[in-house]
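Researcher: Last one for today. Full complex below.
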Amino acid sequence: MKLRRSSRLVDMTGFLLQHPHQIIPLSYFSERYESAKSSISEDLTIIKENFESQGVGKLQTLAGAAGGVSYLPCMSCSEARILLGDLKEQMTNPDRLLPGGYLYMTDILGRPDVVNAIGRLIASVYAEDKVDTIMTMETKGIPLAYAVASQCNVPVIVVRRSSKVTEGSTVSINYISGSSKRIQTMVLPRRSLKERAHVLIVDDFMKAGGTMKGMMNLTKEFGATVAGMAVFVEKKDEQPKLVDHYISLLKLSIIEQEDRLFMEDGNVMEVVRNMKPPKEQA
Amino acid sequence: MKLRRSSRLVDMTGFLLQHPHQIIPLSYFSERYESAKSSISEDLTIIKENFESQGVGKLQTLAGAAGGVSYLPCMSCSEARILLGDLKEQMTNPDRLLPGGYLYMTDILGRPDVVNAIGRLIASVYAEDKVDTIMTMETKGIPLAYAVASQCNVPVIVVRRSSKVTEGSTVSINYISGSSKRIQTMVLPRRSLKERAHVLIVDDFMKAGGTMKGMMNLTKEFGATVAGMAVFVEKKDEQPKLVDHYISLLKLSIIEQEDRLFMEDGNVMEVVRNMKPPKEQA
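Model: Here's the assembly. Have a good evening.
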């Protein structure tokens, strides 16, 4: 249909936000709106300026035959700081302490707006990296993994603790839990992960990192590569960590004798602060 | 900041899409853009026309002191038909048959674009109803539940098969699986569900409906109300069903002797066809 600029802008904005990390040829828009490519280019300039000034993300234009425009979701440093500030405030409540040094986060991770914001922050960090799939361990990491995957436009694979009839044949490995030192099993459907895929591992909580390390080993078992590891909350005092090169959003310290807990920024803020501003990269 | 109409349209579209089912006062936008309310109203008219003609959703304007604008995501009948057509085609593959009359859907439900589209369709059906929370059973229903919840702007609660240290005190009930007739347990954290909440139950697969019925009973145990039930795939030939008043997107029939399966539309298409077009309701 033929649309005026104002309607084109509304429609293109919605379309780009819902199709992150996909190259959309300019001809797609010019056919959709029966408009000249030059008009579409002007529209995209307006959208790009708005996205970048509002910290929504980057709009990359790729020239050539395979060219087009691609929306990369990004969270600005200031928005990340506000998000982490809010989360720290909500989570620094001694009622949240559970036996075994765990933290009750079910309510917070039950809110899709919070989970989607966390997903957008993690996706921002890896926006320029090759990521083919998001991996997580059942159950609590699943919403975060999908939130990241939605922004990266890649599928999710869920590692399970035992094989299920609904998943066909599986590959399983044993690993040692970092904090309890017990031998545990993790299982992945055979057809779920391709060789040489780049896997971003995402989880909600990390103590010593035994589960993360297990997922690294499982990735290698399939001949795939770890593109990165991201965790929502890590326990600060759990040492030594079994993994490195991960990002964490928050760090938790517990003073058990006093039933008190502290939350501080994880290393993600260092990464976000060092990310190149969008204008330089476009 | 002061913005021109074109930039306002881009920004407002993004903001509304990311804040479904929330009443945004016009003063929020007029302050954000340092623009007169009359200009904002004109902007909203453009966005409303676009959303409704493109089948993205409805923009409801509420007059009065508590007034403002609210975006209700909706999927058009034609988009729903295309979505279900695509899903049927992908799923009608005999390789997907698993022992026990189950279906391998892990790859399809691993794709966030597919899951988000299914979530938008389910949310459309309940767009005009009071829904306070989405409930699902671990593990496979979780992504669908979050996809629906994102569109409804409500939290998710996940029912588990056994209690976990990370969830504090719990309430558990026993229920009888409809197809295997075995007694099973389901558990929910005590602090997760409020009395008198309106609960929309979402799951990925239903045979006789024993799990759905268990979740209904668990909802009542908390003094809450079932607002609706939605399932992605139901088995057609599993009779009698233990629940009614549910919607299903697809119906699966299996001819086991021949290793063949058939997929047809569930009852959701009847509901979508009967939904009032947005223009009449606004």
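The two ends of chain A are 30 Å apart (CA to CA). DSSP finds nine helices and twelve strands in chain A.
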